[in-house]
Amino acid sequence: MVGRARGAAGSFRHVLPVDFTAETSSNGVVERDFVVGEVPGVLWSPASGSERAPLVLMGHGGGQHKKTPALAARARDAVTTWGFTVVAIDAPGHGDRPRTAEDEQIRAGLRQAMEAGDAGRVKSISVAYGIALAERAVPEWQATLDALRELPEIGTEAPIGYGGGITLGTAIGIPLTAIEPRISAAIFGGGFVVHDGLIEAARRITVPVQFLLPWDDEHVERQSALALFDAFASAEKTLHANPGDHRSVRWSGLDKEFLARHLNAAGAGTPPPA
Questions:
Q1: Closest C-alpha among 65, 53, 243, 216 to residue 149
Q2: pLDDT, tens digit (0-9, with 9 covering 90-100), for 178-223
């Protein structure tokens, strides 16, 4: 059934159905592939049931996909440790989604610029491509969220968090969180080029934020990442900086109870027993 979800300023969006295409279960976690419209995704949930559990959105990095090993590991940990339901989708031109000739050209240009150490070209390509992807991906995330909330095991009352994603996952996650009032807390990671649009989006974010910064990123100016963190309007925000270059961002030193604390406070269930 196609329903309607209330959007900004009281407008309504059509709700697309969730079409599940595959299901597996292991170690207490059910993994279901799905499609909403033309966007493929994956949903991880507790095998014991997930009614009213918090829903965590996870974004993948640039050039990666919704089931990269690191993302899948974090998703499964969130399910088994906290009882969350976790969802990831492929960004435009990534994973199971077709790449346009423009996508291929931009990726090739970015690789060449990185290999040549051309920081100016890396920045200009990254900013333009990141903006274009976010303009497509943010409404896709909203449509996915609308669709999943129609499922009885998730429903409209489940608190929602953005559970991180470095590089592209955060370049999309920041503008998404800035306009999506259903997100109650967010974890972001550095490793992407900061631009004026991201700074403006950060200024509209007031929910609690954790921000992970790779201190030695060779492609991103450290000061620009610090300026982005400073721009978040959140009363509660923490910066976690670890040694590491662009490809070795470490998810260490974070407050592991951050999402559980804020999403449970927003009205969901409790962590599963040990």
A1: 53
A2: 999 999 999 998 777 889 999 999 999 999 999 988 887 776 788 8
